[in-house]
Each structure stands twice: as C-alpha cells, then as structure tokens.
Amino acid sequence: MRLLTHNMLSSNIKGVANGFPLGIEVEKVIEKQVELSADFLRNLFPKIEWKALVDAARTMGYAELPEEVDSSMLDSNEFLTKFHHALLELHLEEGALVCPETGRRFPVTKGIPNMLLHEDEV
Amino acid sequence: MSFRKAQIAQIRLMSSHPEVYEPCDDSFALVDALLADRNNLLEHQPTLCMEVGCGSGYVITSLALMLRQEAPGVYYIATDINPHAMRVTSETLEAHGVHAELINTDISSGLEKRLAGLVDVMVVNPPYVPTPEDEVGREGIASAWAGGENGRCVIDKILPIADYLLSDKGWLYMVMLTANKPSQICLQMREKGYASRIVVQRSTEEESLHVIKFWRDFDTQADAKEKAATNKTVPARVMESLVSQFPLSSFWRSCGSHSS
Ligand SMILES: C[S@@+](CC[C@H](N)C(=O)[O-])C[C@H]1O[C@@H](n2cnc3c(N)ncnc32)[C@H](O)[C@@H]1O
Predict the structure, then answer these.
(1) Can you tell me the mean pLDDT for B195-221?
(2) Please, are residues B27 and B59 in contact by the beta-carbon 8 Å criterion?
(3) Local structure of B231: helix, strand or coil
(4) Domain coordinates in residue numbering, chain B
(5) Residue-wise pLDDT tens digits, B17-52
(6) In A, which residues are within 8 Å of B90 by CB distance?
(7) Residue B126: which of B146, B100, B140, B111 has the closest Cα?
(8) Does B101 contact A at CB distance below 8 Å?
(9) Which DSSP category does A2 fall into?
(10) What number is the ipTM of this complex?
(11) CATH class label, B11-258
(12) Best interface-test mutation with A: which of B54, B87, B103 has the largest number of A CBs within 10 A?
C-alpha cells in the first residue's frame, strides 16, 4: 500500500465520524522505484491532505517532507522528488491501519489492506 | 489501427485460485470494450482508474498494460470483497510488470469519503447472474456471480457509488446481461445526468452480454432537471434514443456476436 492510498482511506465503521487519517502500525516498509511524473503530482497535489501525508511518511521512516506547502512549490524539482517518493515509492508491506476514533485495526498483509467489516460494524 | 498493437493480460501469466473467478467471456468482453475505446481513453488522460471486483486481475492488468506506453502516470486502484482475489490479482499484476493498489473491501467502502469525484475511469464486471437473494455475497466463489433478483443486487449498490466517485469527466464501463434490464439501468442513470452507449454486445446460447459505457452529459443533465422541474416522465427524445439503443432482446439474441 502506497501512502497515496493511505491518504484516500478512512475508517468505514458505522457511527465513526472522524475516520481520517488512519493511524499506521509499521511492521515492514518496502521501497519501489517509480518513474516520476510531474503532471501526475501536480494534478493530485490539490487532493492530498498534506498533514496526513507528512505524518504517515514520518511513521514510515521518511521525514523529508516540509510541514507547510503551497502550490508554488510544485515548480521545484527538489520538492517534487520528495513528494513523489513519499506518495508513490514507500509501501506499507506488513502492518495495520488504525481507526483514529475506535482503535480498530485493519490489517495490511503483503501490501493489501483489509477493510472488510464485521457484521456489527456495518 | 493503433489499438491492435495494444498489450493486454496474457492467460499464461495469470495467477489463479479455486475460489477466484477465472477470466471468462464477460472478462474478455470488458477488455475488448476497453481496447475498442482505447484511443478515447488516451485522449481522456485519466489520472485515476479503478476496478470494483477485480477477481483474477485480468481486467485491471489489461487496462494498465494498454495505457502504459502513452499514459505512464496513471494511478490504478482495484477492490474485491474476496481476500483470495486480492492475492491472485497481485500476482497477476506482478507477472505482467504493472502495479495497482489493492484494497480488500466491499465495493469501495473506506475509500468513498476521500475518493469522491476523483475517479476518471471505473470498470466493473459485477456479479450479475439472477439468483435467490440469499446467495448474494456469500463466502467463496458464488459471490463472484450471484446477483440476486434480476441479477441486480450488487449492480444497484455499485451505480450510486460510481456516481459519487466519478470525476466530472469520469467514465464508467459496466458488464451486464439482458436479464439485468440494461435499458432500465440506462434510464436510471439518465435521471442522474448520464448518457450511455453500448460498447460491446455479444450473444451466447443462453445470454446476451453488454458492456455499457456511462458518462456525464450536459444535455442529459438538462433533461433530468427539466424532468425534476415539471415532474414529468422521461422526455420523449430520451426515450427514443434509449429504445433505438436497446431493441427487443429477441433481436439481440438473434444478431450473433459482434462488437461495436
Ligand atoms: C464476475 S466476477 C469478475 C472478476 C474479474 N473482474 C473479471 O472480469 O474476470 C465479479 C467479482 O466481483 C467480486 N465482488 C462481488 N461482490 C463484491 C462486492 N460487494 N465488493 C467488491 N467485490 C465484489 C467477486 O469477488 C468477483 O471477484
């Protein structure tokens, strides 16, 4: 699971009001190189919850993202490289996502989060 | 034509599992529809593509392969309710050297809040076979095809979610049978402002498969508003275009397999 996906996931348990962002429990992180596409990053930038990405990246051991951002930074190659790395190259391979409200853990196995709910959670 | 050169998933590279739906006529029809529409897809310049119910991964892998050359920066997400399907899709993707983000979930549960309005292309080959309602969503392979009354149980859940997740320019490709009453589905989508077109239509002995493409359309939206304002039924012009798209099913059955 890439951090872009983490940025798109919320706790889906019935009754949870603030299910975003999910906490991350890290057992294993892997890095996979992906070709950088500046257009893609620029398209997506306005949709990203920045603080959630910064915190998630830090939990995964990457602390290079600036806390504060604005769209003018998308002209900087240095910024794009870091943004790209955090968003697309870091994978949570084993671990869990944690509902911020209830503490319910959603396991991540072989990079795949299991968001299936139990009957009493739907 | 350039789409002939496009790559799709290869059967010999597919992973499998006894409880995961193997690529079948419906999977091939959906991929053929995407191939037939490939030039449009490239022009569309999607950022985010999503498959609901990816099964073996045949469709999402094919989509990623056919867009890879010209549209390298696309993000792919695939979901399935079956945990085995996740593993099989992951192996299929890897064997073809492409990537999609996989999430084991019911339709898109957990993604809806943040993904709303971001999906540029959604592809779905849903469980569509008419069955008793209580066979829908059971564990194991039956959930791959069991669709409840008229085969519509899962389809009817997916359509409003697709409407919610699709971007303004978003496209939905969905497989359905005559038994699912596709003209009724298109009418319902009309009321939400979507135009539709049959991309592929194929008949077998028992059934007629369709891959239908939906997109938001300003004319249709105006019609939908007019309808809401006057509280009339569907405007005559809409009805005409639908009827011309969906002739009697007996005609479909007799017209053999062809794609458009
Ligand atoms: C007809 S199979 C299609 C599989 C694959 N996309 C293909 O075309 O070969 C339908 C798939 O939808 C999945 N499915 C059924 N209900 C679902 C749901 N509520 N949410 C997500 N996936 C579901 C099944 O597990 C199965 O893999």
Answers:
(1) 90
(2) yes
(3) coil
(4) 11-258
(5) 999 999 999 999 999 999 999 999 999 999 999 999
(6) 110-112
(7) B146
(8) yes
(9) B
(10) 0.96
(11) alpha beta
(12) B103
